[in-house]
Design a protein that fits this description.
The chain is an alpha/beta fold. The chain has a domain at 14-210 and 246-252: NADP-dependent oxidoreductase domain (TIM Barrel, Alpha-Beta Barrel), CATH 3.20.20. 38% of the residues lie in helices and 12% in strands. It contains ten helices and ten strands. Strand 5, helix 3 (90-104) and strand 6 form a beta-alpha-beta unit. Helix 1 packs across helix 2, helix 1 crosses helix 9 and helix 3 crosses helix 4 (128-145). The protein starts with a strand and ends in an 18-residue tail after the last helix. 44% of the residues are buried.
Amino acid sequence: MPPRIMPLANGLLMPSVGLGTWQHRDPVVLKQVVFRALDAGYRLIDTASAYRNEAIIGEALAMAFNDKARLLKREDVWITSKLAPKQQGYKGATAAVLESLKSLQVDYIDLYLIHWPGASGREPESHEHRALREGSWKALEDLYRLKKVRAIGVSNYTRRHLEEMREYAEIGPMVNQCEFHPLAQQAELLQYCRDNDIVFTAYASLGEAALLADDSGIEQLNDICCRRPDLTRAQILLLWGLQRGAAVIPKATSAQHLQENIAVVDSRLSADEMSILDDIGKRPEKRFCWNPTTVA
């Protein structure tokens, strides 16, 4: 079966399936989604400063922790948040984490990531990106030592960005969160993270829903869907990511989809089915979100 937890380099155990919250900003809807997710067994909530929903999630979690019927404590839920590009630099990152702590109504954040290797307002080739992200990392290292964050990492970092960190990081990144699905398999980056004790987390596992369409034109995926009527198309994509070694953080709103997504840990794709899906990687890569390869 796919792993239920992902051990980080510092010994912490991160859930392998979490709730993604990008584009969720409606207070009523998002709170309901968080409650449904917690009741379905989710123990990882992924957010970011740039999502502008930390305060809503903070309110929902505070209500859940105070609800005696749920029997949930703060330490039961893994919270991931991220530094926005406009917050890059030592001072900006320090202030951002403190603001996230306030918005989320917690004393610590389980995992904090640099969301993007670049900084706002600079051309992609600007040399300022490196200096600013180095400053951001130094701030996260200090906040880690102060136990304001329990683990630190990056998001959308290429192998080049990760190798650069060896020159200044006293604490290595524990997680790299990137777009990852059969049309963007990033095999070299995945292997690099594996070789360097960096947990790889997939976002956009469903191709921003584009891969869920029956007419997506991906014959290999259609083939597996026909072979496995016991699994939804989304579950097949999530299982592929998990069995390739990545944690997954799919978005969902309905109770049914939330339950289906987390239930993947009780299923498995065969080696042959995995190979068929791997074969999709022979197509030209297609990203549905940010492409960090141009950031200096």
